[in-house]
Write a sequence for this structure.
């Protein structure tokens, strides 16, 4: 079973839902390899016909049925894919019917834009959060920390920036980040600039070996990137943060999504 | 039907898949309001018991069955929710069984981390893309444009930065962005710095009224934010970009996800 399976994500909108579900499902089948194509904005019969032709061509070319993960709101469009030679997994058909019956309301196709602008308030909050996070990145605007939902602290290259941006974009949280410099670490106590934001602080840490690897890419053969220096900085940072009871999260084996979800969870249960 | 329905997203990992599917489904029911809670990292029986208690408490408190959108890989954990008083929509149970039968392979629970680090290559590409996008934001590093997958151009506040960051984070694309300044617009022809990247350029535009509103928040009562100035800048920018055949996308009624998906699509079909 080593042949590559063709996979299509077909959606009448951005395709984000179909992609997220599809990738999540496929990640559970490690013995197969998949060739993935996205067909977003498939929102009329002509485009569905085109999608169906691509799908059937792939099925023929690979000698194996294509897998199609779809999120089509219009049942006529969905029906056209049902007639296509593929394994069709439509995220909406089953669940929408169950929800319609539970809620006693018909699903409205035209509103089917979870990634659109329907919820203007939340969307605006997310864009504002992204701007806030960019403006406060890497300790750029300490005077705005009082507006932050969360302030990430850690040594250089511990993953603060991508995590902050992801949380702003995904959750609409205003996440600042503040670097612990070698000078801060030498002091040994939490920098005064952070003192009054104690409940908002979360520390990012990682294994020294991994940090050295990341820094080596940035400044090869520097003291900055040396394992000894990374070890010393991380040790000092962890001790400093633990002394003040600041929660630490280890990013070595975690993706930015995992770190973000855990940090968000830590917010919810904050005192 | 104005009572608020309790909704839970229950996942054994980050909860991103459950949230995306759940929000996408709920956006189709406009007559109801929903109170949403996320329960990520529900990955052992104790945590599922806790989730079940929260769900049943919400059902009692609201006098209406809670809706639960779940992505639980372990069928024993899922089974516990089946016994809970709620409408359970589990994204995995049905689709995993269909895929197992189609692929002739059992789904592997332990790999169930679409948002983990399993695909190190892609993850690394995404983080590199975020770093690239930050380094080239707002025309900061023109000398790196040759490494870009895409270069967004447009007037100040046309949405270039959030769109670039989203595309980097979501798709792992290196997206630079370059501002068309009033001086550029006065020249009337595409700035020379962009000339050799023609196929990578995409223009962002929007309605003058919307741009004026956005700029007004930044610099109230300025010439910069005035409707007349916005109209003039946008007109000049659109004419300049059209003259060189650069595709334009209007962001007025579109979310960053929609713009990003369309831009990605335009890449795929580029000559």
């Amino acid at each position: 079973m080593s042949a590559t399976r063709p996979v299509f994500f077909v959606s009448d909108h951005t395709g984000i839902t179909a992609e997220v579900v599809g990738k999540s499902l496929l990640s559970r089948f490690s013995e197969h390899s998949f060739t993935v194509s996205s067909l977003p904005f498939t929102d009329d019969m002509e485009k569905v016909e085109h999608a169906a032709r691509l799908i059937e061509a792939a099925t023929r070319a690979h000698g194996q049925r294509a897998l199609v993960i779809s999120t089509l709101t219009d049942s006529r469009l969905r029906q056209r894919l049902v007639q296509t030679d593929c394994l069709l997994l439509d995220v909406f058909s089953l669940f929408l019917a169950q929800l319609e019956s539970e809620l006693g309301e018909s699903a409205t196709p035209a509103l089917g834009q979870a990634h659109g602008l329907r919820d203007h308030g939340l969307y605006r909050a997310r864009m504002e959060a992204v701007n806030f996070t960019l403006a406060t990145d890497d300790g750029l605007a300490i005077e705005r920390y009082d507006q932050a939902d969360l302030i990430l602290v850690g040594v250089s290259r511990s993953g603060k920036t991508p995590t902050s941006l992801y949380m702003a974009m995904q959750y609409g949280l205003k996440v600042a980040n503040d670097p612990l410099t070698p000078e801060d670490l030498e002091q040994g106590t939490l920098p005064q600039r952070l003192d009054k934001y104690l409940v908002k602080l979360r520390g990012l840490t990682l294994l020294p070996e991994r940090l050295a690897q990341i820094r080596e890419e940035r400044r090869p053969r520097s003291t900055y990137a040396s394992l000894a220096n990374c070890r010393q900085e991380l040790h000092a940072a962890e001790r400093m943060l633990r002394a003040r009871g600041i929660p630490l999260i280890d990013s070595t084996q975690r993706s930015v999504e995992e770190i973000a979800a855990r940090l968000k969870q830590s917010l919810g249960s904050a005192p």
Q: What stands out?
A: The mean pLDDT of chain B is 91. The two ends of chain B are 52 Å apart (CA to CA). Chain B touches chain A through 72 residues (CB under 8 Å).
